[in-house]
Amino acid sequence: MSMSPEKVLFPYEKVRRCGILLHISSLPGRFGIGQLGEEAEAFLQFLSGAGQSIWQFLPLGPTKSDLDHSPYMSSSAFAGNPLFISPDLLLKQGLLNEEDLAEVPEFSPYLVEFERVEPYLFSLLNRAFKNFSNSTSTESFQSFCQKNSHWLDDYALFMSLKEKYNEKPWYDWPDAMARRHPDALEGAAQELSSTVLFHKFTQWQFFSQWDAFKSKAQELGVRLFGDIPIYVAADSADVWANQDCFELDPVTLKPKYVAGVPPDYFSKTGQRWGNPIYKWKINGQPNPALYRWWSNRLSHMRNLLHILRIDHFRGFQAYWQIPASEPTAIKGKWVRGPGRFFFEQMKDAVEGLEIVAEDLGTITRPVIRLREELGLAGMKVLMFAFDSDEKNLYLPHNYEHTNFYVYSGTHDNNTAVGWYLDPQVPEYAKARIRRYANSDGNRIHWDFLRLAYSSVARTAIMPMQDVLGFGSDCRMNTPATSKGNWRWRLAERFITQQIKEALFSEAKFYARIPDRKDSPKA
User: Fold this and answer.
1) Contact 279, 290 (CB under 8 A)
2) Torsion angle defined by CA atoms of residues 79, 136, 40 and 520, in that order, rounded to the nearest 10 degrees
3) Which of 24, 104, 17, 21 is nearest to 53 (CA)?
4) Residues carrying an active site annotation
5) Model confidence over 158-168: pLDDT tens digits?
6) Are 234 and 276 in contact (CB under 8 A)?
7) Pairing of strands 54-56, 285-286
8) How far is CA 396 from the centre of its chain?
9) pTM of the full predicted structure?
10) Taking the CB of residue 506, how many other CB atoms lie within 10 A of it?
């Protein structure tokens, strides 16, 4: 039995509500990728008018071309993605002029063409930076740099060094640079000062535009719901700048152990993710540097968001540790995580921030107990509900309390229509959802929506693809594939008054439109 909200570490509201999952990159717009300009504000207006009080998106960090631009393998846990910076807002600041935007290439409205979008947008950012460098209005920029120096200095230098060393991972840089000898760092900062300043400039622009975006969301009563992976990429500014926080080989500086999950029904060899494992303890005591880094990370997220999903939450209770020399996850072992102690130490850092625990997959009773003791919301995915029997825990009649976020599917799932039309999905699963929803399956995506909205779960989230009834060609990510993901875009013509009114009608019918007094606070 779950604990009452009054006795948990993080009490939660019992307000029924609903929202949409759509990554920033998927927004429409003329620059080939979603950005924090007019289109983001227009979508906020759409959500508010549709009775939606939550906008969920994926991690916001810079992405890498060699990792297919996955938002889950970023070069920084703190930095924002420069591709989300709106050139139109740079124009309004006077950092670009009309001529700079007179001949925008024709980009696909349905897919992010990263190979074309990235060089074009960085050419605009470099132009804006040059114009900024020639101006005298730097007080806001200097204030931003000073306030964020605890991560910004390392990130800007890291990105500059990556360029200098032809994108090699940091542990393959010259030894003095990889080990962060003070003289080497000082020399690099001077040599690369212009590039370092450029990366600081892009971050200033990203977070300035984000602040305006968040203010508009609060004005419209929409909560911003973000996502962080529990682990960070081995080749990131975070690991390079905080080597004492990770289990690294003292000679090679590469990870000694890596993260993943053990073999299961879906994979005989498990999953070997390759992220370095945290060094939670030093000489049997909590690692102060790591707890300080996590506190900074969560405080940073609190300033950007109203709600935060922690990916792979179970890693705080126990994590699968794989020797880095192993090619698969088979020979890993379970190691106990920091558990409740970690969250007790983070309580001040996350004050006012609602946290959601990603607890999908095979989850043990101790993981469930930790989540419930903390008072964190768990997740339910309806697409997982129909492949077994009436005891399936994802079926709405088995939700034992309200503290859940229920989804038709996540960014890793097929779309609802794609799932229903997939010949690999057993026919009995399709028959079960038709019976459960009392439906002929012709509008299966709307059946999923009504099952989510009618459930006792206090929050219901639908991917925008499922709101619109799109097929599998519009899914965001296919796990275990390394190419062609994260590219789907929402063309503007699909954001219609009809869809807005239909969403509002369902949200109202199932009592998921909160009073304005429940709107997010600044």
Assistant:
1) yes
2) 70
3) 17
4) 311, 358, 412
5) 999 999 999 99
6) yes
7) unpaired
8) 26
9) 0.96
10) 22
